[in-house]
Design brief:
Blueprint: E1 4-10, H1 14-26, E2 31-34, H2 43-46, H3 51-56, E3 62-66, E4 79-83, H4 89-92, H5 102-111, H6 119-129, E5 130-132, E6 146-150, H7 156-167, E7 183-186, E8 188-189, E9 191-192, E10 195-196, H8 199-204, E11 213-216, E12 220-227, E13 230-238, E14 241-253, H9 256-266, E15 269-270, H10 272-277, E16 284-285, E17 297-305, H11 317-329, E18 343-347, E19 358-363, E20 377-384, E21 392-394, E22 405-407, H12 414-431, E23 440-445, H13 453-463, E24 465-466, E25 498-500, H14 515-529, H15 546-549
Parallel strand pairs: 1-2, 1-14, 2-11, 5-6, 14-25, 15-16
Antiparallel strand pairs: 3-4, 6-8, 7-18, 9-10, 12-13, 13-14, 17-20, 17-23, 17-24, 18-19, 19-20, 21-22
The chain binds flavin-adenine dinucleotide.
């Protein structure tokens, strides 16, 4: 093996960029960062309004993983977009800055036997990373490199949504990220002066010229290399040529919730029967690898409006020209500087006092997948943020170039079906409530004729989409839990010198968007690895109640 490094980090996404930043700047380590996708140096990534074009258009920055046909969705296969570029998800995402609730992280803490993963344990990491342009308090930092700001551009749909939700007794909140998600309000985004602030912008850019960092793009890692059970390097491919790199320290997987378990399995760590099926020699029989897949997904309602209240027409003709001039000549202002998702609400429709399990987005446009000629429109989406259904990631083959076999199993749990149905009905209630009702012309998805529960569920099966938050496939847990893949300090069980710092580590999905948490987890992971913090002695009280603890 030729090149040798102190650490090798696999995947330059949200968690990978944070990991290398801390290793290089704080610990002076020589780090190899391998990223399968290209550089993030592209205008469409930097301009907030470019997001939907990346998610639904054709760019090299997004790869779509097609799921197995889903029996619970009438046999439909789902494409789940993932970042394939420096910055990973944070370079292609909708930039919404969100954290889970206090309870979410306290449930993680419980899953690890109280090892130190509760809300209070994570807050220092969120705060340290955050450069909030409005909030500075015990939950928020304003000096960090990750810029977080209020929406620079609002549309009438935002005002209508905010007022309508308050008419439905949902209280206004000016901060979703204090541990309490309840309410309706304006979102904050990882946007600074009209430009995306990805994990790469915040954490990788400052060290790109540091001689201790070696970044190789368009480099797909195939497997981890072991001597016995000790990781000593990785094998990767650039331009069809296979390379090896070695490390005297550790290999850290930050390749995302689909690829990190795939890489473990390709390296011989996983359910031994499944590895045998693909002719892979088992190094560690770890039955939990690829299990416990969770993802948020949405019920969609789109309606035409009687007059313009959103973004229709802003990207064509003279308006597009005007917006481009405004954006480039006037400090990145106007619609191009907006993420298009400026308001949201978190509710619990069963018990208004309980932790929210539905997130509602209001988007001032027709949803791209809804088949209807372009016109003034608004879309409401209900995101099931506490799903109970669990899917799997398995190997499709022993070939690392093949996507893994993803079985999402959305709505396979009856409670998820019930809550999705209930939330779609609630979206209808929102657009029938003043002042929203005054601008709605026609609800065309789902059309009015779809009324029975059975027909509405069928509509959900045909139209539900990912909110792009897959997690949980290498979950951490207690040492003696046979289904946990990682110890609470994020070491892969059964081997030495391999850790996973990305969204795969979550035992339970958080009830909000996952980018900020991916970054906070990575920084805490580095602190554990470098001995800066140690696991807490079990026994501390958190907010987990007896009733909620049954969810874990
Ligand atoms: C379209 C979209 C919209 C989203 N919107 C939001 C939002 O508005 N707010 C929010 O909080 N969250 C959002 N998310 C989710 C959030 O961005 C992700 O949860 C987060 O980026 C995941 O971080 P990660 O480090 O786990 O993985 P990623 O950021 O996905 O990083 C994995 C990296 O590994 C690379 N990689 C994969 N395989 C290999 C390999 N074999 N070798 C080398 N490199 C490899 C990938 O190219 C990628 O760069 C969105 C995600 C997407 C995809």
């Amino acid at each position: 093996m030729k090149d040798s490094f102190d650490f090798i980090v696999v995947g330059a996404g949200s968690s990978g960029c944070v990991t290398v930043n801390r290793l290089v700047l704080e610990h002076g380590a020589r780090v190899l960062l391998l990223e399968a996708g290209p550089s993030n140096n592209n205008q469409i990534i930097k301009m907030p309004a470019g997001t939907l074009k990346m998610i639904y258009g054709k760019t090299p920055f997004v790869k779509r993983i097609r799921s197995m046909p889903q029996p619970s969705l009438g046999g439909r296969a789902i494409d789940v977009a993932q970042g394939n570029v420096v910055g990973g998800g944070s370079s292609v995402n909708v930039m919404l800055y969100a954290r889970g609730s206090r309870l979410d992280y306290d449930l993680w803490d419980k899953a690890t036997g109280g090892a130190g993963w509760g809300w209070d344990d994570l807050i220092p990491y969120f705060r340290r990373q955050e450069g909030n342009q409005r909030l500075q308090n015990e939950a928020h930092g304003s000096e960090g490199p990750l810029k977080v700001s209020d929406a620079p551009y609002l549309i009438e749909a935002d005002s209508l949504f905010l007022r309508t939700m308050q008419n439905l007794n949902i209280p206004y909140t000016d901060d979703f990220n204090s541990g309490n998600l309840h309410g309706v309000g304006l979102t904050q985004s990882t946007v600074y002066r009209g430009r995306r602030c990805s994990s790469a912008d915040a954490f990788l850019s400052p060290i790109l010229n540091d001689p201790r960092l070696t970044l190789v793009t368009s480099a797909r890692v195939n497997r981890i290399l072991f001597e016995g059970t000790r990781a000593v390097g990785v094998e990767y491919v650039v331009d069809d040529i296979t390379h090896q790199a070695s490390t005297t320290g550790e290999v850290i997987l930050t390749a995302g919730a689909f690829v990190s378990p795939q890489l473990l399995m390709l390296s011989g760590i996983g359910p031994c029967k499944h590895l045998e099926e693909h002719g892979i020699k088992t190094l560690v029989d770890s039955p939990g690898v690829g299990q416990n897949l969770q993802d948020h997904h949405v019920a969609i309602l789109s309606a035409t409006t009687k007059r313009p209240i959103g973004y229709f027409g802003e990207d064509t003709g003279l308006k597009a020209l005007k917006n481009a001039i405004q954006y480039f000549a006037f400090k990145n202002s106007g619609p191009i500087g907006s993420t298009g998702s400026e308001t949201m609400a978190f509710v619990n429709l069963d018990d208004p006092e309980a932790d929210p399990d539905i997130q509602i987005y209001c988007i001032g446009a027709m949803w791209p997948t809804v088949k209807r000629g372009p016109t003034d429109a608004v879309t409401l989406m209900a995101n099931l943020v506490k799903p109970l259904s669990r899917g799997t990631v398995k190997l499709r083959s022993a070939n690392p170039a093949d996507h893994p076999e993803v079985d999402l199993r959305w709505l396979s749990d009856p409670s998820d079906r019930r809550r999705m149905l209930q939330s779609l009905k609630y979206l209808r209630e929102i657009v029938a409530t003043a002042p929203f009702s005054s601008v709605i012309d026609e609800i065309f998805s789902p059309v009015n004729q779809i009324q029975s529960d059975e027909a509405l569920l069928d509509y959900i099966h045909q139209t539900t989409e990912s909110n792009y938050h897959p997690v949980g496939t290498c979950r951490m847990g207690q040492e003696d839990d046979p289904m946990s893949v990682l110890t609470p300090d994020l070491k892969v069980k059964g081997v030495q010198n391999v850790r996973v710092f990305d969204c795969s580590m979550m035992p339970i999905i958080i009830s909000a968007n996952t980018n900020a948490t991916a970054m906070a987890v990575a920084e805490k992971g580095v602190d554990h690895m470098m001995g800066k913090i140690s696991l807490r002695t079990p026994g501390r009280q958190t907010s987990v109640s007896t009733a909620e603890s049954t969810r874990s």
